[in-house]
Specification:
The protein is of the alpha/beta class. The chain contains 9 helices and 9 strands.
Length: about 300
């Protein structure tokens, strides 16, 4: 395979050399087997199971989405993959190691719905912040050069001196993404990063995220409630049901890359959107049939 083809395969999440039958099997970049999570209930000896028998694999350079009913455990699963929650059962590996090790090696970047920028720092200093904390031996000039590079990547070099209150919601999320990318992680895990934005800004940010993925080749796992967003961005969508949360189907998206505004009008997009909508309705129905669910996202009534 040519170097150009290898690069293209990495960008769209395909394995370089996949066309040769003798190619070696490549280990998934993210691999989860038999994941279950239980939390103790306050003032009770009971435990509530919020994730059950989760299995998923994400190839290096892949883009997958997690979608399901509100409170079904999508965010909990993302936190397990990131090493923030230890599963009660099962095993997770990121880049061939435990996710806590991967995080310690700065292989995982996190972006949340709230940009969580420091209000007294400008955009440049917010992007620099994690680098400053992670590597205090790194020269200050080098840290700021890296931060400026990431601001250029997200199209905000002109806003380097502005504070969060002076930025729009979409711009604040771009700064948060630049901050995560400043550490040069192999994996970007995103928990509804555009959920608080208006429809047009959200669509613009979706196209922006796709461009960033195509340019960097990062492995991305995205939690979303948006069917359009999941179909437009992803190579695969993991559909979750609730009570307890589990993956009921993994749907491959039959669309090539690059994708743009015209992609929304393609028959294959409409077909994938319809199928995903039906799967989500099935997930809602199965959750209701099994009784009133305990919320998994946030797990506010359970002690971790």
């Amino acid at each position: 395979m040519t170097s150009e083809a290898t690069t293209a395969a990495a960008v769209i999440g395909e394995r370089p050399g996949a066309e040769t039958a003798s190619a070696a099997v490549v280990r998934p970049h993210i691999h989860a087997v038999g994941i279950a999570v239980e939390f103790p209930v306050r003032r009770s000896h009971r435990r509530v199971r919020v994730l059950s028998n989760i299995n998923l694999s994400v190839p290096k350079g892949g883009f997958v989405s997690l979608i399901g009913p509100s409170g079904c455990g999508k965010s909990t699963l993302l936190q397990v993959l990131a090493g923030l929650i230890t599963p009660s059962e099962g095993e997770v590996q990121v880049a061939g190691m435990h996710p806590v090790q991967a995080s310690a090696r700065r292989l995982i970047g996190l972006v949340f719905q709230d940009a969580t920028l420091l209000p007294w720092k400008n955009a440049l200093d917010n992007v620099s912040f994690l680098l400053d904390v992670a590597d205090k031996s790194r020269p200050r000039r080098e840290v700021r050069d890296r931060a400026r590079e990431m601001l250029r990547l997200v199209g905000l070099e002109h806003a380097a001196e502005l504070r969060p209150a002076q930025l729009s919601g979409g711009m604040r999320q771009r700064v948060a993404i630049a901050r995560a990318l400043a550490l040069d992680p192999e994996v970007l895990m995103m928990d509804e990063p555009f959920g608080a934005l208006d429809a047009i800004t959200r669509e613009e940010m979706t196209a922006f995220l796709l461009e960033i993925w195509e340019r960097t080749g990062k492995t991305i796992v995205l939690v979303t409630h948006s069917i359009d967003e999941a179909v437009f961005l992803s190579r695969e969508v993991h559909v979750m049901a609730t009570n307890p949360a589990r993956i009921i189907e993994t749907m491959a998206v039959p669309l090539g890359y690059p994708r743009n505004e015209d992609t929304y009008a393609e028959p294959a997009f409409a077909h994938a959107e319809l199928r995903l909508r039906r799967l989500l309705k099935e997930g809602h129905r199965t959750g209701h049939r099994q009784g009133k669910p305990g919320r998994a996202d946030g797990a506010g009534k359970a002690e971790r």
